[in-house]
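2024-03-11 09:14:02 INFO receiving multi-entity request
2024-03-11 09:14:02 INFO entity count = two
2024-03-11 09:14:03 INFO echoing inputs for audit
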Amino acid sequence: MTNAIEVKNLTKYYGKFLAVDKINFTVEKGEIFGFLGPNGAGKSTTQRMLTSLLTPSEGQIRVLGHDYAHDAYPAKGQIGLVPEESNVYTELTAWDNLMFTGRLYRMSKEDRNARAEELLKIFGLWEKKDVKAENFSKGMRRRLSIAMAIIHKPALLFLDEPTPGLDAQSARTIQKIIRQLSTEGTTVFITTHQIEEANQLCDRVAIINQGKIAVIDTPEKLKQTFQQVQSVEIAFSENQEGLKQKLTALPEVSSVIKVGDKWRLYNDSPPALLPHLVKFAEEENLGILSLNTLAPSLEDVFLQITGQEVGTMQPAPASPNKKRRKGGKR
Amino acid sequence: MSKMTSRISDELAQAWTVTLKDIKVYYLRPGMIMFGFLMPFFMFFSFSVRREMAAGEGMARLLALTIFFTAAAAGPFIIPTERRMGTYDRLLAAPMSLMTLLLGKIAVGAFFAIVVASVASVIGILFLNATVAQPGLMILGIIMGAFTFSAMGLIFGSIPTNNPGDVQMPSTLIRWVLLFISGVFIPLSQMSPVARAISYISPLTYAQDLMNHAVLGMGELNLWLDIIVLFLSGILFLLPSIKLHKRGRVLGY
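2024-03-11 09:21:47 INFO inference complete, emitting structure
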């Protein structure tokens, strides 16, 4: 068996609403697999079905060789789950949270104690082990939540939006741990809005949109497929009124967006655009402060696939965007 | 150890883990203290004021009332709270059967009720000067009632919702109705034939009668009937909880 996850024709209806529409994919053992999609695309619904928290309307799920329709029990012991909201018991200390999870997964006392100490030290929580989680910051709770999910050394770890809203240090620690787990052979399934994080972490990504998987591939291959979203980024010495319209009117420019103090001009052949840009700057008496050609980013690919206009993507809200509908999350 | 024995041993240990965790996390929460501890005592004293009642009768009534109200308070409070906090997913995703999880949750309410009933027993013996005709039967009745009514409370807790308020109010209302039709405030012997017939559908009727047997040494119904009905009710109450959990898994709770 080389696949940690095999999904065939997986479908989920909430009443008449089709949340996930006959999706098929596999995740290889040891892989970091990113599951990307806009809000309401069906990411969390899919993940909840893969973790046996939600019953599919149709389709087949095999996790670590076990068919969920037959019996999810053998797989559950080898899975770790980190939901979007850090679900730690705030009334318990960090240590008690880990002990509880260890007992739930039937670890021996020696193993529990040793692993809890190891994880609390890795996650920088050892000094706070006897502090109740209600006194933890969001980042600390997130780290504790992940520690609880991996205390039993799962073969497969599900992470739902692991880092949004965290400080840079906590996010970096978590990304480092994810890479480490993958190196040790753990398969990691990440559901995320953070395109750049997926680009940095994932071996392969799937982009789901309106309940259907639009594409699955490695981040680099996806970027190569979407060469039409290459761009030139330019910073002028000053900003003129109506500059965006003038730039958009340049030959071979498909769209223009403002990125901080720079302008990003999308086109499928940056070298052909450069002479036009230099000429334009001369004619308009604009000094060029910087000029770069950019390959398509994974975010560009994502926006192309999901049909959102390039440059319009907004950062995902911390969590309220995933309020449960009828209790369920899409 | 065979695979089956090992699995049963694991599941029992997991149920106990869930119970211990809930005891630590929830017993001192205001919702539990209000609905599970204070309310039955308030109700008892408000219905007992200015009513002539023998000490033993008062104690049997207090015991039935506290076991019933306290045991059934845990499920409607704890499970929706855990669903709202996302911690229930941790339990549902863990390698244990749904039955194990439910047993763990039932034990939480049952132990809480046993503790509160113990307080009620002390009050009855020390302050009401009651004597207990059959202490062993009283302990059995407390334990059986606690588990049965905790299983009843679990039905409400299993309703797919993230909001404790959605189930606490209806569950409290239904418990009130059962109190009035079950011979707790009006003894079975004083009920009209119609009211008495209705009271037979409530398991609380049998718990109250069992307590009457234990404390007063006599009841209106056959003692064995009380025990069998309580036992079977506890098992039957699991069925809707299982069904509601499965429904919740379809809806996404």
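2024-03-11 09:21:48 INFO post-check: The first strand of chain A starts at residue 3 and ends at 14.
2024-03-11 09:21:48 INFO post-check: Chain A has two domains: 3-224, 231-294.
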